[in-house]
Every structure is written in C-alpha cells, then in structure tokens.
Fold ANTAR domain-containing protein.
Amino acid sequence: MVPIQSHDLAQRMAELARTAASPRSVGEVLSDVTAMARELIPGADTAGVLLIGRNGKYESLAGTDELPHTLDDLQMTFDEGPCVQAAVGDLIVRTEDFRIEERWPKYSPAVVELGVLSGLSVKLYTADRTAGALNMFAFKPHAFDAEDETVATVLAAHAAAAILASREGEQLQSALATRDRIGQAKGIIMERYGVDELRAFDMLKQLSQDSNTRLVDVAQRVIDTRGSH
C-alpha cells in the first residue's frame, strides 16, 4: 500500500474522534469507521463490522456495500471464518489468499465464488455479552500488510469506543428510567397508605421479595394499578 504519513493518520483519527464524540448514532459512527477504512487502506475493496452476542445472535453493520453482510451471513451459516475468529478469538486475522486458505474449509471456497480473495479482520472489542470485529476484504490476493494492520487496529479502537459509549448511555438511560418508576411507585404508596418514603420503599422491596419479581417490575405494577384504587 502507499505509506500513510503518521501525522496524516493522526489528523484523520482526530477528525474521527471528534465526530464520534458528537451526539450521533452508533450506526453513523461505525459507517464513518468503515468508510475511513476503505480510504486509508487502499487494498480494501469493502469493509464492515460484525458483532456477535453470547446468545449467538449477530449483527452485520456499517457495510460500505452489501458484500460484507453477505460474507457475514456465510460465516454464521458455516460457523467459521476470519470475522468470527477475530471477534471471539485472535486480535488480528489476515488472509493472504482464500483460494489456498485451509483454516475455514467451507467458508473460503464460498467467498472465492464471490470474487473475494483476501481479507483483514481486527478485534473490535469484547464485553460481557458481545464480541466484534472490523473486517476488510479485497478482490485480489495479498492485499493487506503490517501497516494496514496498524491502521485497522486504530480504527477498530474508535469503533469499540463508540459502541461502548453507546452501551453506557443506554444503561444510564435504563437506570434513570428505573429510578423514575420506583420513585413514582413510592409516591403512589405514600399517598395511598399514608406512609413516609422509607416505609413506602420497604413495602416495595417486600412485595418484590414475596413475589420473586424485580423491584422495577413491582413498581410498574403499582403505577399501572393507580387508577383502580
């Protein structure tokens, strides 16, 4: 590939970091990452992101065209391939030529039929429930080198940060919603039974324990029955 000057790469990464920090969806950030992968890694003819949940469900995201999604479908069908291996195992998986690649005996010949001859997959991140990889593919063999791996690793770090930030945001929103529901239920119990806040919360907790139901679900039931008393 044509060498990328380190200051040029740093400048582009700074641009990506600034856009990732703005209020945008994960999908938009990942699309920026895959678009930049194609721009900064000339050998990459297509790029995408694969996320795999612990339950085996997968999401094929931010493809620069439809091909990465087709390749992800093949990997899920065959339960093998470089994206899966990078997502749940190796940090970097580089394939020089799928025509002679023996690690994935079902997947490799299938992608060759689609014209894909080499690939580069980099672990995106691992969390309790999800694994992921940033994936690039080329229509020629030996399209990727060590410098490409470095660039892809930096891009993958940005993608991981965006996903983790989004997950933290979702968890925060969920926590706030839970707190609001419990607070609302406490208020209803205080008014209904003439008790103070601490007693109302104790009553909610007791209901939760007696019914073996999550506290937030008990709170929602109290809210739902507000009009029936």
